[in-house]
């Protein structure tokens, strides 16, 4: 980007800063004025207009907040005019210079105000301690957000700021460099307090007064906190200038930090008898807060089985808590894209030595990403879920699946494994990276280009992969530079074929999508790609990123754009940013929600080159990500629903921890040697989607269903010959008898009749009994050539539900089904319940109320679907239903072609209202069950 173009862009964005809805006319005027101040001949005017429109058309959803009910004193609005916003104003102007759209800057200003206002005023008298959490998406801009919080906190009077930046030096160094650029304004590698020997960088190069802030850490790879360095700096943590430290989550580092920060200004607290630091407001930013910060140690019990009050938690967790406890005034702010480990923290956990645990009791803020963010829903697509009001979404045509890696590097390989010959899929991924890099250069992108190879956590195996790839690239260079293009050994024909059959059609397809055109560049001719490839091959560097390698991501030190292939494991799966990431080759298998999401370094922003990005992985992993996308969306909807109702973090925590789906997202360490998990079915629906197909089980469940309906008496009038059959005011014991007799598949963990029956019995015995009366619906469908079956005296049309095929088997289709056998294989479906069925028991007034609640939730985030909902959602239906009434739906299903034709499976669904008592039941989960369900979870640390 030439200087005149860059300057014109900065001026135009500044002129549009106050415009709420930027029109084409606004852009035209801003461009015309900007061109008066630069050399017009050096500016591609059409490109400038298009890029401005793209940046200004970014849609930004409103953040959702859960606030705790505690002794918080709102203060920011009253104090705003008295604060000199030096650091924030400088950062705001810097974001504009970086090319942020005006709407994005206004959004981060609004959100960081909300976060800062949720802390206490730094000079508020007495002791206070705020605990909050910000939830964003992977690679969505959380660092930019907390940099804004740091700037405003420093302006407001927080004098000691500690950033906990991951477990590895590389991530800590990268975070420090970012804060050097965007908060400190100088390069900390030469001096950690600014003087004339430091080079000004980032915000430090902005016009205006330079603002002093001190750092006790540097962006050097070995620049973590050291006591001897802190002594040399002679800084007092309570002085006039802010002091910042960017440290990794390491026990030794945190122990020394605690000693340094507390010894200079501490006294004995007469109330607790412990040392306390007064009048030094502390802000702790915990980046990737679900990693290492959560206490995973089991709480011990005494000889009577009662929990012990005082015990030692895991080291990192205990040291963070001690640091917060030692300061009279503190604010702790957790940032994470996968918050479930934090949600599972016990809000009541507290010890004398360490104080309370890190549950975000004060507030939780959910940041939906802007419209130009490329996340899990965009990449992998989203299955529709009519019960949750989630519309389906197609994924991007940028995923290539393969199964040729097992001979090269099996999933369960050892640390001394020797990989075989490089698989064709990896060579294809290398070719894709070379083509993507060449295309970006032709498009004029003067940025870094990166590729991710994440196939093993073992460093010795990583080294062997690197060596093989280096040999392959050396051979490619030789053949491209010195070989005959027409030779069978030349890589150019394969590259040309891939460009014409893969890249060009993908670019054309994405350009036809109006929601993605701003993220896609123009189609590039093969001749231009071919001419750029030799230099691209010369520029490619292989770097190995792990605990033993001396390689590092040195983007900031490069004099020109880098072209990197990064090979690694754990270091690449937490927080570390690969700039200009276009191609990923990913094998690390895990069914854990947070592990998979964090490994997704390919999420983020890809302006002008989304069409060049590729992800190569297994069909199984792609399927898991698609499942995760739906689970993630459901949990976000749950959050927004509770925010709309004014619920607290504690209430949301209880809700998620006790949700049946919670078993899918808890850390395995929570399970330990087997644990009783508290589950509530309040405001949930449980449906059977997995069925055994042997005659005994099918016959038993048919007989159990017939016994139930035969004893219910006269139903409500049916609508049509094959309309559904409904009974009202059914006593709870009838429903319990059905559940006691029903035989579910062992793997149907979310619809186990015994657990459901126990929950009902628990609520029947509360002071104000709940679920005393039930509506029972026997679902029946009509249509031409409808297959029917007689249940008791009722002729019903059998419900048809397609066999669910995992993505890796979907292509097999009929061939796969031909191999299934009744009595041996299970019949699995995606969903049982149709959304309208759940309304069966609602009155007209209840349906109207549920629809209004659904519309209200949609208005908070209308981008979740294109049109306003016309039918009530499941959460709202269950919320308006009185606690005394439950709904049991029975589904006689049409047997698939390979099943017993005369024995229809019977599925059931229980729709529970919101409970007043929020009673839970104990559900024991063992490590064996966990390993069978999700696979054994080894450590994600790289193994030397």
Structure description:
With 944 residues, this protein is α/β, with parallel strands linked by helices. It has 28 helices and 29 strands. Helix 9 links the parallel strand 4 and strand 5.
The class by helix and strand makeup works out as: alpha/beta
- Spatial strand arrangement across the major sheet: 1-12-2-9-8-3-5-4
Radius of gyration: 30 Å
**Biggest beta sheet summary:** 8 strands, mixed
Counting H and I runs of at least 4 residues, what is the number of helices?
28
Number of strands: 29
**Average pLDDT for all residues:** 84
Unreliable residue stretches: 661-674, 807-812, 925-944
**Beta-strand content:** 5-15%
Shape: globular
Helix content: 25-40%
First-last Cα distance: 43 Å
